[in-house]
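Hi L., both proteins are below.
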Amino acid sequence: MLPVTGTWTLPFTAYLVLLSNRVVYQRLKHKQWIGNQLNSDKNNTGNHENPDPLFLESRCHMNFLENVPFAFTLAAIAELNGGNRTVLNYVMAALFVLRVGHAELGLRAKDTLGPGRTLGIFGTQGVLAGLAAYSAYLIKGYWGY
């Protein structure tokens, strides 16, 4: 019924597991069982040269979770309303590249300011807006257009 979104569950989930494990690793390494930053004077959330490692990995994880579930919902709505499967596959592939780029080539890059960060967030916003518009277009007949 949803072969496109079903296809993309594996790579997105695998990457989410990687992001989750990075947070767990920082928690175990620093014995910080709760919260999203370490209790250290030299590490802080606003320091781009020496970012708090737990906060950094937590933000990579949270940024992924803030965007991907809604994108999957929009893609599933489009797919259920007859969206072109080839187009939706390309969109999901683009989203995957954008989200990986945001973390790996953006937040985790030198000084947390890599080019993947800007491309990832604005690209993801474009994907979300595009999926919403495409979904609305697919059901335009329902509204009499």
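That was the first. Here is the second:
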Amino acid sequence: MDNLVDMFWGTPTHSFIANLCMHIKTNGIYKSNIAVDPFNFELYDVGGTRSCRQKWMHCMGEQPDYLIYVVDLNGYCQGLAEDLDANQMLESLHVFQSIINHDSAKHIPVFLFLNKADVFERTILRQPISDYFAEYNGGADYFKACRYWADRFAKLDRRGPGKLHCYVTNSLDSMEFRSAWRQIQEKMVHTALKY
């Protein structure tokens, strides 16, 4: 994991980012140290399955400085691995709401990654969002669909403006992902300089 973090925070390769975004499932909690000169940060990578979520509070209890929440945009038409009858996106919305409004997240920046946009753009052509979320009326328009999900998540944040930063990411576009991570690094350093 340390090698992955070194690669990622340095100059991540296309294959590394593709693996990070599409193939690596986290089970448990993995802690890594990241140096963003002149600061050192601890990164906790926590799995998203229901069984892993019980471990999240351990990390949240340590008063995090930042939170990165990753959502698979294709989850709107998928079930959970552990419960195929449960809608993955509804579950993501529910979990996000409980995390973002938790006491330990009250004053910290939260980075929301709406991920796998490249796959999502093709999926909405075959699986209309309105088949799963009747209130959606944007059809197969990719930009309207991304805005819909960004707005759904943003409406759950009761902490006030300026603390939620949303990124729509394409799991195979390393430049796009690298750009989002640079922005996060800048925000992390900027916040750290305040203290």
